[in-house]
Amino acid sequence: MVNIPDYYAGKNVLITGATGFMGKVLLEKLLRSCPEVKTVYVMVRSKAGQCPKARIADMVSCKLFERLKDEQPDFAVKVVAVSSDLTLPELDLSKEDQSVLAENVNVVFHCAATIRFNEPLKDAMQLNVLATQKMLALAHRMKQLEIFLHVSTAYANCDRELIEEVVYPPPVDYRRLIDTLDWMDDELVSTLTPKLIGTRPNTYTYTKALAEYMVQQEAGDLNVAIVRPSIVGASWKEPFPGWIDNFNGPSGIFIAAGKGILRTMRASNDAVADLVPVDVVINATIAAAWFSGSQRPKNIMVYNCTTGGINPFRWGEVEYHVISTFKRNPLEQAFRRPHVNLTSNHLINQYWIAVSHKAPAFLYDLYLRLMGREPRMMKTITRLHKAMMVLEYFTSHTWVWNNDNVGMLLTQMSPEDKKMFNFDVRQLHWAEYMENYCMGTKKYVLNEDLSGLPAARKHLNKLRNIRYTFNTVLVVFIWRVFIARSQMARNIWYFVVSLCFKFLSYFRASSTMR
Predict the structure, then answer these.
(1) Residue 181 and residue 107: Cα distance in Å, rounded?
(2) What is the C-alpha to C-alpha distance for residues 349 and 415, in angstroms, rounded to an integer?
(3) What's the N-to-C CA distance of the chain in angstroms?
(4) What is the arithmetic mean of pLDDT over 420-438?
(5) Which of 55, 192, 164 is nearest to 404 (CA)?
(6) What's the order of all strands across the beta sheet hosting 301-305?
(7) Are 418 and 280 in contact (CB under 8 A)?
(8) How would residue 481 be classed by pLDDT, with cut points 50, 70 and 90?
(9) Helix, strand, or coil here: 310?
(10) N or C terminus of the chain: which is more exposed, having fewer CB within 10 Å?
(11) What Cα–Cα distance (Å) separates residue 138 from each residue in 95, 100, 107, 131, 173?
(12) Residue in 121, 135, 124, 129 with CA at minimum distance from that of residue 92
């Protein structure tokens, strides 16, 4: 078999969703590790007054592409922005662009999708199912197409405990659902959505399952592969450790914990946190397209790109490493010292939300009002709770993944390709990865310079002293108001203090004897 860089040499590649988190990493990795790739077409819509070409020019000037720029200064000439809107008829492509793509494209990476878990069903169908259907229709016109790779999610079938590398039939016929949603008004769709999605937690996982089945049904003679990543996090190694550029998914939760805003979360300590680094997903995606494109297997290849069954890491461990990292390397202007309680009990979680989130936020906003400033903490807490509610389902459940196809793919690669396109998560050291992830949120999401660490540590020590002072004042207050006025309370208090003193004396004597 030809190696991966040689397979892509001279090829014309089309990427959708190139401005998204995974799309950027895919574009950078493909150009850097497959330097002989001919052209990469990226389908982009105009946004905020910027044309597609300007958006791509801005994107490739960010830090993610610095290593590529050093190695290949003229890489940008290979990137061709194609004006398109996946929600519009014929993808809003001009006749000229349709012709260019139909005549030239060899490989399609369809990464575009809505990442909002609770998108209204109509919108989620438009972006995740209908857009994929239009992309397949365009792919059928491509004369040189070798592989159509569809990026799905490992949670498309999260209503199952065991998830194998196959396309499962959805609970409804996607064609009938498309026709039905076409005439329904938004209010009626909203009412019917819980019944339609059933035991799935949101419209995202539901529509991604429909999209997979639709790809299988409408692929025809197209050569198709599907990659299913789980919770995609910061980069492991490439182009450098810890790269992340958004607050989505766990990243926003980690930042909230580091700032001391998040203090409690509903999650099971023992549930497997199926985090997968973005460069692992991209390396597997490029390799999957290479294998199916060069070998043309008879059936659609599905790859569960997950870590839970191979190198499990639990939410309790995630919490420990996040908090310990941010205590050593604190975020600037933290609200409180980092500390998070994980609980699977709903009532206990609600209690801690009231005590540790809402009450301090209310008091802080009251302080801001008294100072003549705009209150903001309650709004932040509300947004945080919405994000936590979205993640609750995934932080409280564990799935069993079949990864046979991923294992097979590794065996088909040469030693050089395994090194260059590494997605063997058995090599992933979680403690090191989590530290890089947390530091990545500090450097690349919050844009905090590491030179500010001494001041941040000083601020954290100040918060600790404030906390100790507050607790001391609270104990004195309770003594003066409640204990000092009751003989029984005083007797209990003296008994507890005496017991503690005896225990300390015994401990000290035992230590001396040793």
Answers:
(1) 32
(2) 49
(3) 68
(4) 95
(5) 164
(6) 79-83, 39-44, 12-16, 107-110, 147-151, 224-229, 301-305
(7) no
(8) low
(9) coil
(10) C
(11) 12, 11, 12, 11, 22
(12) 135
DSSP element (H, E) containing 323: helix 315-328
315 close to 321: Cβ distance less than 8 angstroms: no
In order, the DSSP letters of 57-117 are HHHTTSGGGHHHHHH-TTGGGGEEEEE--TTSGGGG--HHHHHHHHHH--EEEE------T
501 pLDDT band (50/70/90 cuts)? Answer: confident
Q: How far apart are CA 368 and CA 337, in angstroms?
A: 20
Separation of alpha carbons 270 and 316, rounded Å: 6
Please provide residue 460's backbone torsions phi and psi, each rounded to the nearest 5 degrees: -65, -40
Which residue do the tokens 């980690």 mark?
Answer: 254
Question: Using an 8 Å Cβ cutoff, are 305 and 231 in contact?
Answer: no
CB 114 within 8 A of CB 124: yes
The span from the CA of 136 to the CA of 147, in Å, is: 11
Which residue type does 35 have? P
In the DSSP assignment, the letter for residue 442 is I
The pLDDT value recorded for residue 410 is 95
Let me know if 470 is exposed, middle or buried by CB neighbors in 10 A (0-12, 13-18, 19+): exposed
Q: Let me know: does 201 contact 399? Beta carbons within 8 Å.
A: no
Residues of the chain with pLDDT > 70, as a percent, come to 95
Amino acid type, 204 = Y
Token pair of 228 as six digits: 């299913």
Residue at 115: amino acid letter: I
Q: How far apart are CA 344 and CA 373, in angstroms?
A: 37
